[in-house]
Amino acid sequence: MTSLAAAIARFVLRHLLSFALICAVLLLGRWGWAEWQAHQASRAELAQLAAADQRIAHEVDALAAASRGRVAGLAAASLDALGARIEALDQETRRLQIERQRASALGPVLRGQPILDHQLAGMRLDAQIHLLQAERKHLQALRLRLLATQSGQARRAELERLRLVHEGLYTQWQAARREREALEQGQPLACRLGLGTAEYRQCTELRALQARLLEDNRRAQADYQRQLGLVQQAAPPLPPLAAFSPDLVEVQAVLAPLRARQAELQALREGNWFARLSGPVLEVMPTALLILLGAMLTPLAIKLLFYFVLAPLAARRPPVQLLPGTLGEVALESGHAAVSREVVVDAGHELLVQPDFLQSAATAGRTDTCWLLNPRYPLTSLASGMVALTRIRSDGAPATYVISATQDAHSEVGVLVLPAGAALVMQPHNLVGVLQPRGVPVRISSHWRLGSLHAWLTLQLRYLAFHGPARLVVQGCRGVRVEPADAGRAISQAATIGFNANLGYSTRRCETFIAYLRGKQALLNDSFAGGPGFYVYEELPHPRKHPGGPGRWLEGFGDSVLKVFGI
């Protein structure tokens, strides 16, 4: 019960730590992405504002140049021409003011027009109105100068005309006020609260009309007062044309309230520690849960795919048969393995053995170093550890040598007798030594099987076959066994040492899915059939110890690469 609770606690703690790590990584990535997006957005906004600044300045310069050209063309004009131009300027100014009032509404923005374009349109209208008013002021001063040179009767006639204009504008303003007041008295709620109704729009238009008429009335009153001064005293000197200097501060002024409100909300949010802590966590939690769920279910999905799809498909494929013409013979000397084995070396043979497996040696023999097991396969010899071997020869009477796994208490040593004409497929990492004819290295052949599904599932694309006559000294955990494969046999892949090359080699799925899911059994077992022939295996798969941390992954990757090449 205690072990079950501990296992559950470790499982929960491991996945909670994984979840916390995923949240931390997502938060860090989110912060970096937000910073990058803010940088890009600010740079794009600055570029847009700079382009808009240049465009508005260019348009204002063009409008100012056109205004100067029109004023220069009227420098010697008559009173009638100047009055007609001033009247045209008043009408154009009123039209632009109405258009500016409509442009101030949010309707175009709601219909999809960009905010910056909406603001630029308003600035353009403001510049045009400012230039028209400056042009009118200059023309009016020019007209007054021209009037000053005429008789007093003409001045009084002009004074009367200006009075009539002022009176007419005041009459229009009173009419607009009475119409608005009558509409507000008849429909008070619609005029005040009925957004979007016809009465509300009519009231708004009447208010705007009153404001325009009041402004025109004040301007007419100013013209009347100036004319009255001319009648009563000498005309003032003509003022110079006012220089127009466009001011683009309104671009920032329009956005100032919105940006102030955003800064206020951001300050409030930064002052709330719960929002700062819980907000980002709640935002990334669904993504973190999906990643954690994927990390938990992906291995299960992969195991389901391999167990129920790929493994049965491979079982229906034909077996791998490397050398069908060779003899299916191999024997274990003395019928069993032992902690130590005696090997007799005569004058016609030589023994190649790893130095750390040589427990005792006869003094009569001659020893030297053999750098490679087989010069044709230097990388294979180096990767399997069969390098810098001790070579033992006997020139006289046969000598006995004892071979033992001196550095592994679990391993036992066995001697496989491989007769002439027979071949044994094996991975050299189980090989300890070779007793071969003197001067004649044991023959090794390489066989690639890239088109076999069995080879791809086991990740062993190349097979090495050792040809007799030779005696192969191998090691195995708790012993080595040799069994016939006539009727078809299956064994754990981790325990297999080798098999005769004439046998049909295939893979077979393990018995139960639960055992494979829990890691108690490997997915595939080695299967041999098509005898006569034998297969060799160790009594117990060796419990190889791997280092922790990155070293474990690197060693596992290295073992997989060596297995691909049959080593």
Quick tags:
single chain; 567 residues; alpha+beta; seven-stranded antiparallel sheet; 54% helix
Strand order of the largest sheet: 1-8-13-10-3-6-5
Q: Overall 3D geometry? A: rod-shaped
Would you count the extended β strands for me? 19
Derived from helix and strand composition plus strand pairing, the structural class reads alpha+beta
Major sheet description: 7 strands, antiparallel
Mean pLDDT: 76
Please report the distance between the alpha carbons of the first and last residues.
44 Å
- The proportion of residues in beta strands is 15-25%
Number of helices: 13
Uncertain ranges? 241-262, 545-553
In helices, the fraction of residues equals 40-55%
Explained architecture:
The protein is rod-shaped. The protein is of the alpha+beta class and 567 residues long. Helices cover 54% and strands 19% of the residues. The chain is built from 13 helices and 19 strands. It has helices at residues 2-73, 79-103, 107-110, 115-148, 152-186, 188-193, 198-232, 249-271, 273-315, 378-383, 453-458, 513-517, 550-564, and strands at residues 331-332, 340-345, 349-353, 358-360, 366-372, 387-393, 399-404, 411-418, 423-426, 431-437, 443-448, 462-467, 470-477, 480-484, 489-492, 496-500, 504-509, 524-529, 534-538. Mean pLDDT is 76; it is low at 241-262 and 545-553. Helix 1 packs parallel to helix 4. A seven-stranded antiparallel sheet has the order 1-8-13-10-3-6-5.
